[in-house]
What does this fold into?
Amino acid sequence: MAKNNVGPKRLVVGAHYGLKDWMAQRLTAVVMAVYTFTLLISFLTGNNFSYEGWSHLFSQQWFKLFSLVTFAGLYYHAWVGMRDIWMDYIKPVGVRLTLQALTILWLIGCAAWTVQILWSV
It folds into this structure.
């Protein structure tokens, strides 16, 4: 008897076949859109376009936290997208795992740099 590999009994192998990552990317996209809208409103309604004006905006605790949450969402959004690209198009396991590890290291470095920049203002 031939093994039936279609329909509800189908064997799905791999990582993250589900709704969680799809929803996470949509949620992080919404957070990034709200942040962009907030920056745009701040820019259009502001009258101090100097370094001091932008420094004042980014020195407020709520805006630092909003920025940090947005950038954390951006990095997670990027991770999900890049992980899916590596899984879909890079077939040799060793190369794929190396690229995934390098992507994680790069994103962690970017996150650390983001924290350093936000809390140096």
Remarks:
- The CA atoms of residues 12 and 45 lie 52 Å apart.
- The chain has a mean pLDDT of 89.
